[in-house]
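hiii, so i know i said id send this last week but things got crazy w the move. better late than never?? heres the sequnce for the chain we talked about at the cafe, plus the structure i predicted for it. fair warning i was half asleep when i ran it
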Amino acid sequence: MEEIDPARTAVLCVHWQHEVVSPDGLFGPLFAAQVTRHRVPSYAARVAAAVRSAGGLVVYTRVAHRPGYPDLIPNTPSLALIRERGAFLEGTPKTRIIDEVAPHAGDVVITHVRLSGFFGTEMDTILRARGVETVLFTGVATNLSITGTAYEAVNHGYRIVTVSDACTAATDEAHRASLATLGQLGLVATTDDIVCGMER
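okay and structure toks below
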């Protein structure tokens, strides 16, 4: 694997929220079983810990809406379902990040309301202020918000690395297909690859 400079690296921990990855979350029926079966949070936590220890930046992206959903444009079935079910409301327990990958002091949490963690947020400003050049990805779902955010990262000039065992999708097939696409835009690595790279 190509060398990664920890001081110029950030890991984006995408949608580790109860609404997305817990069985009783809105999208839990799609993702929770895959998250549990592949032990994805344990790998994501290892990546975040390695990046922190090496002096890199750990960033979490989460979705949360204002009461009444004035910030929600329901132009996809998933977004329409959020309004219909009254989900992802700021301040409610299920918008919180799960304990296994919870933020530490010094980490950054970015709240957004669209598919990508860059759109309508200060993400690019925060990364550039830290001198970040390489962005790692963990989280859910590989074929949705990870891919959407990764495309924007590439367009903003960042080098991307998708951590294959630290993210998942609703099916193994969707996950593998997304990794094949993301591999054309950047590196695809395992948690062990990243941890070893951070320790060099």
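btw The chain has eight helices and six strands. thought thatd interest u
miss u guys!!
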